[in-house]
Amino acid sequence: MTQATNKMQPTNPGVSGPPRVSVGQSSARRDQLVGLALMLLCLAGVFVIQPLLTRLRTGTQDEAGKVVQAGIVPPPPAALNQMAAEFPRLTLGGFRGLLVPFLWKQAEDDKNERRWQDLDTTYNIIGKLQPYFVAVYKFNAWNQAYNLSAQWHGIDEKYQWVLEGLTHLYEGEQYSPHNADILLEEAQMYFLKLGGSFERIEYRQMWRDGIAHQFELGDNPEAGVTSPGTTALLDRHRRVRQFILMPQFRATLLEDPRNPQKQGYGVRIAGLRQKPDGTDDPVEFRYGLSPFYFAYIEYKRCLALGTPTSTGLQVIHAYPAMSLRLWCRDDDYYAQGKVCGMFFRSKQGEEAPAPEDIPDFDNQVMEIRDCYRNVQMVAPMAVQAFLDHLAVFPQNHNIHDKHILETKFLAQIADAESTMFEGLVSYYVGEGKTQRVLTPAARERLQASLPKYQAAVAGIQDYMDRTFPIRNNVAPQDRADYAKYQEALQGRVEGVRALLAAGPKDRIDFSFLWADTVER
């Protein structure tokens, strides 16, 4: 009995009762409970903020709190969206790893159930919790620019979501500044979405307008956009400003010609053109700039960092040249539409409007001249870029030889159209505009455009014969498409000749300007 009793005695002499909990263990347990309570508090905070975000997204309010525009006006309110995204990362600490899988599952449910507002916020929070996970930004940006934008019928809302996706990519670049995958996605957003999607005509126009109308933001663009009554248009301009003034684009805002103290009347781009002495000659783009320029710059940055994991170097290496080629096509098409809109306004062949009936005649003339200048400047750059690519990858001649030919006839078209356009301008501002008589200056320019149009027709013919040859008396469909543009150029020749032969009392018909000379 005594032996059993002795085994039950405490090991330390003079100490009786159960073992005590150490002070360190008690402190650790207390810290764990406090951490758990903070995590629950953070989660509760997120769920409290979410309904407020949802309510604010359902409409834009004026200063009195009245809803002035129904439906979502993307992007979401910047301050609250930022708070909802940053709050978990700053407070959860090591619990982020537990929360992220739940949020990915929640995001998938939001997508499947078409809860697009919740999906956008969830992806933003995931991005803040995993700031160095590149796939988060790529996936989120794709959803915003492609999936979320497709849910809206209005082009304004679609465009806002595209800008939101582009914004998200640049946020990702802040955390991973030397990641080629992020830069590739940025380039693709300009090239494929703004420049090549189904809504590309509207997107290109809105992008140009955003660059040309930065002055609408005033002297303090941030203050003008964050006020309760801000319009979606000003928010678009603010986002465009954030992009175009990034250092890689080498852009500065142009001054108002009437008041040099005011800025935002287009941009001045360095590094595109050189003076005869070899120094830089900045180019002014007072009426906007094609998104393909921005794609060109981002592709170049991507290549400088190495090969992205998603696309091979042989493909990406050609994309700077492809961007320049499509820049030429974009400006050719845009200018051709502007010329048609100035001088011919219906398919019925009505007589051209009087100069006083053409709104903002002088500015339209300057904008069209800038477009043709751009093509003549960029086309040689594009051809050289293709040659540089083929020097590295000679096996791609069968792919890019046709692109070189296309770039050359795009330059020929710009030369011909520009010469013809100057003839029309001389006709409108010369003495003959009231008597419908061609002045010597107008006649000279119109006459000079004819051989240039013939050269462009021959250029397209060479392109079609080498790229889409007729085999077994069967012409490829693509050949028929380019034959349509060739016919439009031939129509220009016939129209100019008719104009040169017109008498003082003959009806002036500019319907030959209607047909497109290049694809869009």
Structural features, described:
The chain has helices at residues 2-7, 23-57, 78-92, 96-112, 116-129, 134-148, 155-175, 180-194, 200-212, 221-226, 232-244, 291-305, 313-316, 319-343, 361-392, 397-429, 440-467, 477-501; strands at residues 59-61, 67-70, 251-256, 259-269, 283-285. The chain is mainly alpha-helical. It has a domain at 330-513. The strands form 2 sheets. A 3-stranded antiparallel β-sheet has the order 3-4-5, with no helix packed on it. It has a two-stranded antiparallel sheet with strand order 1-2. The longest helix is centred in the N-terminal third of the chain and has 35 residues, at 23-57. The protein is elongated.
